[in-house]
Amino acid sequence: MIRKIKKIFQDHWRRQSIIVITFTCLMINAFALTLYIKNEEINDKKNLVIHSYEVLRQSRLMLVYVQDMEIGQRGYFLSSKTEFLAPYEEARMKIDAVILELSRLVGDNEAQTNRALEIGKYISLHQQMLDDQITRFKTKKHSITVRDLMENSIMLNHIRLKINTFQREEKRLLDLRQIDEKKKRNEYIRTIIFGSVLAVLGLIIANGFVIYQAAKRKKAELELKRSEEIYALVTQGINEGIYEYNVEENKIFYSLGYKQMLGYTDAEFPNTIETFNEHVHPEDFKATWENINKFLVEDELHYRNFFRMRHKDGSYIWVMSRGVGIRDNHNKVIKLIGTHTDITDQKEVEEYLMRLNTDLENFTYITSHDLRSPLVNLRGFASEMEFSLRELEQLLKASLPKNDIKSKSINAIVGNDLPEALGYIKTSVERLDQLTSAILDLSRIGKRELKPELISTEEMVKKILASMAYEINNKKIEIKLGELPEIYSDKMSVQQIFANIIENAVKYLDENRPGVISIKGAIFPGEIQFIIADNGRGIEESDKERIFDMFKRARNVKEVRGVGMGMAFVRATIQRLGGKIWFESTLGVGTKFIFTISNRVRRDVYHER
Questions:
Q1: Is residue 38 very low, low, confident or very high in pLDDT (cuts 50, 70, 90)?
Q2: Could you tell me what percentage of the chain is helix, strand and coil, using 3-state DSSP and rounding each to the nearest 5?
């Protein structure tokens, strides 16, 4: 009986054990499955984050190539040296692959795909513009106008805005993905803690599963490491190095490409802030850290800095440092991740172009001043000769016979030929004086310090019209004033712009019909647009390219006095105020000048070095 009860007990224990073991196995299996699912979710989120970083890198690379094309073209135009086309051709060859890769990366996002296609379209148009200008420049030297360069700049700014819009959207996706990844990691940690308590009861089975998970994780890490190595090779191929600055812990990581850019191996360049400080040029050290600290405390989207770093061979290279900040819940930057690009060649080109520009300014200034001295002498001696001729003429009339042939010949020379020659000399001197004055005025545009203030353009225009009231009333010109909004800008510059254009409108009206001049303005985001239209002579199609050039005038205004510097002066002044100018004209109908002036105070415009 006891044996039977013992057997029943043993059977019951065995059944209970089987139930417990079975339940434990089910729980451990459920826990293992949960870990597996969470791990896969983390990997998926991590891949999305990596994907966004790659999209941002490709978009930044696209902008770099576009800028390289622009710089290469300008260098070629300014120097006429074909070696400046090398970066242009290289960037042009690479940019199509970047556009294709970017479109592939965002293929699962319709909105980003459309933006990428639109960027590609504008880049293609920009390439065509640059190619056409280079071809035109090669076939006809010096046929490229400032207007061409302005159109290139406008297109480049448009492309930059499109890329910035694309990057902002991708950064928004990146932030969301990083939040999702962090959330999944937290969920993963909580699951491990809770499941570990249950896993103790099934340690043998769970141990096998953990080994399996560890092996899988190891494989994933190897794959990620391989991806990082490939990414590093690509980064080295485009002459960039990667860094990651942990602001909270004051720690920094430099990629191998970063170190090799400076001539070091991985072991020779420790991952410390001190290493960075030791290699920054002493003259750039203060400004470099000021820019870094400014980015850390201000709400900026992108970090950008330029400075020199010491190479292993003792020389210094110019570096363009770009990055993005990772912020916490309080919008504080906790990490700065970015790239370093060697722009030494670009800087050398820029310095060369700056020297050329400075030499040109000095040449203009010195030439204009040196011409003034002989002009004053010519004008003075011409006046003395004119006075002497009058005295000589009186003396000859009193001393020479009236009907003598020689007397008539002498009187003709003294009374007609010499005064006529002196008249030509005085006219030429005045013309040359006007030209040198115009050159000096144009060269001074960028040197005067601008003083922004609130301007009533309506009041300003009325004063300009009042100063020209005699000519306006004499010609019976009808003035139509529309809305003229207030603007915050440099008063003297704005007044000179309006005065020049209105004066031209009055001077070049058609005498065969009553003159009408209309002046109005409109407010747009960040700028004010003004329109000054007349029903004057208009401009021939063949003359439209030369209106803003120095010493160039339309061919149908030769009887009106002028040196052809007014519109060149206007365009240079408007560009300095952050605006642009263009016109529409029909011969025999009239001309409409449209110009914009920035309504924002910009540090680089009003506080020049």
A1: confident
A2: 65, 15, 20
At 316, is the secondary structure helix, strand, or coil? strand
CA pair distance 25, 149, nearest whole angstrom? 75
Report the run of H or E that residue 479 belongs to, with start and end. strand 478-481
CATH superfamily entry for domain 239-342: PAS domain (3.30.450.20)
**Torsional sign, CA 194, 196, 200, 203:** positive
Residue 562, sorted as left (phi over 0), alpha (psi -120 to 50) or beta, turns out to be left
* 476: alpha, beta or left? (left if phi > 0; alpha if psi -120 to 50): left
Indicate the CATH number of 452-606 among 3.30.70.100, 3.30.565.10, 3.40.630.30, 3.40.50.1000.
Answer: 3.30.565.10
The predicted-structure confidence for 264-294, as pLDDT tens digits, reads as follows 999 999 999 999 999 999 999 999 999 998 8
pTM, two decimals, is 0.37
Chain segment 556-582, per-residue pLDDT in tens: 444 445 445 678 888 888 888 889 999
Question: Residue 310 in 3-state DSSP?
Answer: strand
Q: Specify the amino acid at residue 449.
A: E
